[in-house]
Amino acid sequence: MPSRDLLVRRVDNLKHLVAQASSPATEWIDGASRVAKSGYLQSALLVAVSIWAATSAIRQTQTSTVRPSSKWSRIRLPYEISSQISRTAALVFIIIAACQTGGQWLNVAMIGLAFVLGLLRLANDPRWRHSSLHQVNTLLAGSFLLLSTAEILPMIQLSSDHAINKSLLGTVVGLAIANAVALITPREWVPPDVTSVHFRLTPSIEPAPEETCSWFNYFIWYEWLTPTIWKGARKPIEMADLPGLPWYDEPLYLLSEMNTARHNHRKTFRALISFQGRELITMAMWVASSYALELVAPFGMYHLLDYLSAPDRALLHPAVWLFLMFAGPLGRSITFQGYIFRSTRLIVRIKSAMTQELYHRAMTSMELEEDVVNAIVSKDGKTPQVQQSTSNGRLANLMASDIDAITNARDTVAITCGVPVGMTLSLIGLYQVVGWASLVGICFMVLAIPLPAWISQRMASSQRKVKVAQDSRISLISEYLGSIKAIKYFAWEDAMIKRISEARRREQKDLWHISILVAFMGSVGDLIPLIALLAIFTLYAGVLKKPLTAPIAFTTLTLVMTMRRNIMMFSYLSRNITSAIISFERLDRFFENTTPLTHYPTGPLSIKHATFRRNKRATFLLRDISLDFVEGGLNVVTGQSGSGKTTLLLAILGETLLEDGSVTRPEDIAFASQTAWLQSESIRDNILFHSPFEQSRYDRVIEACCLEIDFSELPQGDRTEVGENGATLSAGGQRSRVALARALYSKASVLLLDDIFAALDTKTAASLWKLCFCSDMLKGRTTVLVTQMPWVSAQADLAITLENGGIKTTEQHLGVVRKPVTSEEEIGLIENGNADSGINGTEPGKIDVKSPVLKAKQDEITNEMKASGASARLMFFKYMLHFGGPAYALFALLTIVLSNAALIATSFWLSIWVNAYDRQEAVNITFYLGIYALFTLGSAIIDCLGFLTFANGQWIAARNLHKQLINAVMNVSLSWWKDVPVGRVVNRFSRDMNSLDSDLGRMLQYFLGMAVKIFFRIGAISSILPIFMLPGLVTCFIGVLCGEMYTRTAVMVKRLVSSSQSPVFSQFSDSLMGLAVIRARSNMPVVFGDKLAERLRLFSRATEANYNCNRWVSVRIDFITALVTLCAGIIAVSKAGTLPAGLVGFSLLNAAGLSETILGLVRAMNELEVELQSFHRVQEYVQLVPEEKTDDVHDASSSPDLTAIEAKDWPQTGSIEFRNVTIRYDLDGPDILKDVNLKFQAGERVAVVGRTGSGKSTLVLSMLHFTNIVSGTILYDGIDITLIPRKKLRQAITIIPQEAVLFHGTVGSNLDPSGDIPSERLEDAISACGNIASFNFRDAAETNRAVDTGNGTTVVLPGIDDGPTETTPLLLSTNGTTNGIQPVIPTNTTDQPKPSAISSGLSLSTPVLPNGSNFSHGQRQVLSLCRALVRKSRLMLLDEATASMDYETDQGIQAVLRKEMDRGREGDQSRRTLVTIAHRLRTIVDYDKVVVMGGGRVLEVGRPKELYKGRGTFYDMVRFSGEGEDLVMLMEE
């Protein structure tokens, strides 16, 4: 019997060998070997390379020889020697083989040609070496592949008796070594043409590491990033530690390429295709290869499991399938990372190029009209009904969001090129495995596509709502925080918090809808492939009655999951694609609607019969303007507010539309705007404005602008950073004088100065007049000065008076000699008297402007890095406590564990089902299928529950943290805001809160899921293959180690990305605010464009490093886990016949998934730490100390004096008293006010005067308790203000600040944001101000009209349909609608504004655009006065509130104040005190008391007439004002 069994087995093996010899599985091997030996391919390759080499040689003779310009272009001798030796060895071996076999002469020719070209490339020309090296490598790679196919490939057959010749083996080894050396040899660098204008900012360009690294490192290993990773793992890294930017990613080069593409294609989409078409094709090739190689591993696993099921029937060696299981994932990783590498580089290039393109287009175009901008920003071209902002602000947001939306759709390449390849191959493979049953499952998945697509559309719709709500909230926050001073002045913190909270509530409502949809999408995404898989298994095992073997079950599972991922990509990316399409449309609308600046012929400044319009829809015109400005003289423009003075200056600059007439002007003009625009740089940099530094010229300009004393008071002199919008300088005098100094320092032949005297005290104004206008400072320069100073016109060469958009009068004073407003002797005395007017009492004669004591200046990226803070790795525990407590956090963790357990149980049950067939049992398909379905459904339900648990916890945490954050920043002291840019705080509410809303909870769940899954996978593999425990743990250790190195570096690199991005956004937004100033100067837009390019270079450098670090860790972890899969396969092969194939398949499935799990864990660690920085930054601000806690807490009931403040009628009087008060802004800073003793009686009108910096504003701020009282006491209504809660104190005092602040909304909401004041009182205040000149000034042709708002109500408007103009104070929008503001004046009700309000066009429902941009400066101040009147405060403070108004408006405001004061004096219980800071003495000459400040001390106190007669400082100020005689007459009256 035994001999008979042996005979049967031998017969079976013989039959198997006969079948193997004719099997299709082996026929292709023999066919490939025959083709490789035929010589056809060798001949074709020889001819092609020969032609290539000849063409290169001919081209080389026609061009000049380029010598190596740097060490990077020279030959690397060690690598070159190794390459020559290996090529020589291969040539020798192939010659020997040819002599022995007589059939290898074509191979000899190929290798010989490679050897010869390798020697010829040693010629000293980088371009020749570069070309010939490619030819050599092509020959070597082709020879190696052909010889391996011919001689090595047949040996993989188990029945093969093929033996390779030793000489041929030596040839193959030599070629392998030569190819390996070629792969690892650093590339020789061919430098670009550095003389090109694209490299003008980097004339000494050096190669980036990626330009000189080897092909192996460039395409596979990314070794050139290792120094950065290694350094980042040990210590903090800076920008200089990152790899350099390659020349082909230089911003200016990219801008040039983008401009070329834009010239050829008007549409943005086509322009981008032209711009980066080659890169897109490369991406398509990489991603298609990646999706094809993704199926190699399932193919290998299928055959390996088939081998393990029946080893004796195998045709090929199992090492083939092990190699495929190793090489497949590795090849897929290399190609996919290659795709990501190029797609991320595409992101950087598009962001760099398009940011510059938008910036330069904005620089060369007029400001867009409101309706055009609204159409651009909207999704469908309609005006969005959302919170409005300035057009410049929206364009800056357009630049950020739309470019991001376009780059976020880059994976469209993967959908169009990669997914079809992967789907096609998966379909073929699935059909080969299970036959027609696969078609049913595939049809189900295809038919189910509309469901996730529908969910995705609903998500996109909800996302749009969230975006609108988020824009509304951020607009409110930006507006309120930008005006935090005004909010605190009026104690409106709670009212503004309430508005923001309401916007936040709407936003979070939509966010929760999105969370529900995401959970539904996840469940659908999980169930669709699982149901398809169940259908396939049911049909295959139940209908076809075929056994569900391990190869079939686990291969089908892998292929279905692969198809599921590919199908879901359509759904997940559909939102990004939709957003990109919308962004393309919006960008196209922007480029189509921009209007180029008006360019005038070069010549002397002259206007002939010109008509100007601010924009196409503007109603206000400058009509029939003809002016011949005095060349080299002073031309003064005056007129009432709204008469067209500023428009005239803008018309000269080309910022308006020229409808008729002609203009000539010099090319270079310096412009100082009415509201000073300063860059966030040092004072010196602002003054130089990118001009060369000339010490003598600079010193003279500083002296002329009276800035020496100001520099002495600043900690770093003229190197002091001015901050955002000049925040560190005084709102009036210092900012305007720095802007004037910038204009004077320039060498422009024309100066346009818009109301530069408005914010200056009389002494400073007179000194500036003397030193600038009465000297040769302006000699030879044509100066156009807009001013309200009445005495200036008489000393002008040409005096122009405007009225209602036309020229009222022109007067020439040719030959006039400009004189100081007082005698030379008096000026000298007064200037000497200013020596004690500095805060610190510094003497001007001792100021050293040139060499102030400076701290080390830190660059803006370093500052942003410090502001980003750091976060602890395990901070997520603290974050989870915000979900709802420890119990909620533990429940969330439990859902993670159960979810992973269910997933492992599902695949384990599948292995049990498979093993039942192997045991040849009667398989109950219903039982096994039912349990499998139960596990599948349970896993989906637990996944959904876990997602909702984390989503709800994230929602609760974000809600509470936002509430705490807005309360913290609104209630912190103003001194905190001094060093913190508003943009940084807004960033907490936008980017950081967006992370808390959307990303942090999701990333935390993903991180915990990967951490738990890795333990389940290793446990699952080790339970079947215990020997796998060691390589599994080693793999996890190495993977986590690489991940830790990567995470430490990536976190810092991401901070560098954010920090380098902030200056780019800052420059974009800052430049848009100062466009008129920048564009006035010749060639200045180019300078600013270069500055943006410099900043973009740093941003691009950091961004590329950030993306490439991800590639570095991905390929390493993929390689390690591919080795793990290989180890698992080897162990399984060694256990063949001893382990059930089902359990082996279960182990291999988890081993194959280990790569994805470890890599997912590493990425999750990195992303989680990055997202936790947002939580840390928010927490940092949440913990800010409230302003009230900086004082001792007093119980009002404990003191009889304090009980009075609880009464409704407190304060009863407006008396205020200073008793020996010394004030500091910072407790450790200098004394600002010293030993001040003052007493203002109830009902008095008190004026505070003095030089800029003398302490006037500090005196007023001290009454509101914004300063630190070092010693002494301030009493308000007899009570120490330090005992009064600050909000209570500020609610009892009203201030009209120098810069009137209006918020977006209506006039009513601006007068009373809290809504507590009766509307009758608000209307009374409007009526009181209705006749002030600014509101009463109208064109006679304009009449009121009613406008339908679209929902049954109308508003009464002036007869104007345009945005803000010089003559129209009250406007809604560019198209006459409310632009999203609710209409508020029903015409069919009795709730009509009073006649005086209607007559001025003003009512409670009049819309107010952001920043009050539809009101002139004077009109905003009048509304600020209305705001003060409605509060009925006993103490009213005016801080230079009328400085920039014309005299008529000023008189109107003073008349209203006198009337209000007189009304208060009718009864003792309502007496009101008025304290006014004024530079214009005419304003306060009839006040009851004048306080003269100087050097932080009170110099004089008394009635104006008495102080004048005393011939002290006030007397000097009167004499110095330029209108002394008029003031004396008024005092006598």
UniProtKB/TrEMBL annotation:
Residues 605-829, 1216-1520 form the ABC transporter domain. GO terms for molecular function: ABC-type transporter activity; ATP binding; ATP hydrolysis activity. It comes from Coniochaeta ligniaria NRRL 30616. The chain crosses the membrane at residues 104-124, 136-156, 168-185, 280-299, 319-341, 412-430, 436-455, 514-542, 887-913, 925-951, 1027-1046. InterPro entries: AAA+_ATPase (IPR003593), ABC1_TM_dom (IPR011527), ABC1_TM_sf (IPR036640), ABC_transporter-like_ATP-bd (IPR003439), ABC_transporter-like_CS (IPR017871), ABC_transporter_C-like (IPR050173), P-loop_NTPase (IPR027417). It comes from the Eukaryota. It is a multi-pass membrane protein. GO terms for cellular component: cytoplasm; membrane. It holds the Pfam family ABC_tran. SUPFAM superfamilies: ABC transporter transmembrane region, P-loop containing nucleoside triphosphate hydrolases. This is Multidrug resistance-associated protein. PROSITE patterns: ABC_TM1F, ABC_TRANSPORTER_1, ABC_TRANSPORTER_2. The keyword Transferase does not apply. It is found in: Membrane. The keyword Transmembrane helix applies. Keywords: ATP-binding, Membrane, Nucleotide-binding, Repeat, Transmembrane, Transmembrane helix, Transport. Residues 1374-1398 are annotated as: Disordered. Residues 292-579, 890-1169 form the ABC transmembrane type-1 domain.
